Model the fold of this input.
Amino acid sequence: MGISKLFDKMKEQTLIFIDPASLKRSITGKIIDFIMRTDLEIIGMKMFVPSKEFIDDYCKIKKSKISRDYVKSKYLGKRVMVIALEGDYAIEKVKDVVGKLSTEDNHWKGTQIRRMFYGGARFSLKHFKRLYENVVQIAADRREARQLLKLLWIKHHSNGNSLKELFGYTQGKNEKSFILLKPEAIENRLIGKIIDELSKADFKIVGIKILKPTLNQVERHYAEHVGKPFYEGLVNHLSGLDNPDSNTKIIALVYQGPKYRAVASIREIIGHKDPNQAKIGSIRRSFGKSMDANVIHASNGVEETAREISIWDAENRLLSEIL
Done:
């Protein structure tokens, strides 16, 4: 096999930052849904609050002055979500679905993320020109992708890689709700659609990670159901024991909202555990197939939220293994 043929199908790893303004506008799910229209696999997810040290490191890596200036002015002390992706020609596929960096809107195609979700025109009195929110930041090439992945998951590994804390977003009279997106939600590429539905609650995502569940974690998660007729089915499904050939993954999220509201509001949006009994328009009614494969789990109280976070907040090694 020639060298050119060898590299034709070489898998690449890249990443996409969802900007603070995009998170604030609750378009996170829509952006992820666009990414899921590619055939790329999500290999890592995290929420973090960039420090000055992180931004300085980022600017040493990025070639684009627009990207450097944008991150300097928009990212410090704000929530950012980052998603790592893998697949054939991953860098070009992400660039194509996102669109170019620009301070004008005429560089973007109608089906690209930056065209669909630009933040609207603002006028700079100093420069008399229109400025746009760039919505997301991405790697321009393999060098940038490699260095940014190492920066986020090795050098700044602990910066926001926890479901328990996100600096600056845990104070005050707030309540957290723990969510699991089950294997079928990932396999059927429903992640963006489900997160978009959850955005109706108007709460903040303060933690996210993708992981391979262990049997121990799943058994601890469903401990209250031991001995019930459906227990074995739940455990087998979430751990992947019912489908040994699959690469079972789940996504854990933590939402934060006003006290006494977050847990109840999110459970109402999700709907009854049996999709057939869930209200029309609820997540489980729209996307679930059965009580086991009902695409999503949400904690049923504040104490349960804390218990479940402690189960799933073990160090996330999934991406480290791939890197």
In short: The beta strands are 11-18, 41-48, 80-88, 122-123, 130-131, 136-138, 174-181, 204-211, 250-258, 296-298. The two ends are 26 Å apart (CA to CA).
